[in-house]
């Protein structure tokens, strides 16, 4: 049976030891911790149901996983403090972000 030396403890371990008998013990960064590597792809879309003007803020809120009111307040504050530059960015998002037709 092949053995490996655990660099932390100096103990030799081999296949068949530890919580996962088919995985060489002492190798890798997750020593007995299983991780789920399934990734879901989120797409940025303008909302067709929760819109006040064009659905850009609601789309960003859905994408970021925050309340839409937070995004709307941030957009208004950014418009005020940037002397209107954020309004130009909002208009660009309105033109470039596709609508969510799956709802």
UniProtKB/TrEMBL annotation:
Its main location: membrane. Residues 42-99 form the Phage shock protein PspC N-terminal domain. InterPro entries: Phageshock_PspC_N, PspC. Residues 1-41 are annotated as: Disordered. One of its GO terms (cellular component) is plasma membrane. Keywords: Cell membrane, Membrane, Transmembrane, Transmembrane helix. It is a single-pass membrane protein. It is found in: Cell membrane. The chain crosses the membrane at residues 73-97. Residues 1-10 have a biased composition (Polar residues). Pfam families: PspC. This is Phage shock protein PspC (Stress-responsive transcriptional regulator). It comes from Amycolatopsis sacchari.
């Amino acid at each position: 049976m092949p053995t490996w030396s655990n660099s932390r403890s100096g103990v030799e371990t081999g296949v068949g030891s530890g919580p996962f008998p088919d995985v060489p013990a002492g190798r890798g960064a997750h020593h007995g911790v299983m991780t789920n590597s399934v990734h879901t792809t989120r797409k940025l879309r303008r909302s067709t149901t929760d819109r006040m003007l064009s659905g850009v803020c609601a789309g960003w809120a859905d994408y970021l996983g925050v309340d839409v009111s937070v995004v709307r307040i941030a957009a208004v504050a950014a418009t005020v403090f940037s002397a209107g530059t954020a309004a130009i960015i909002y208009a660009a998002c309105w033109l470039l972000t596709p609508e969510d037709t799956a709802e």
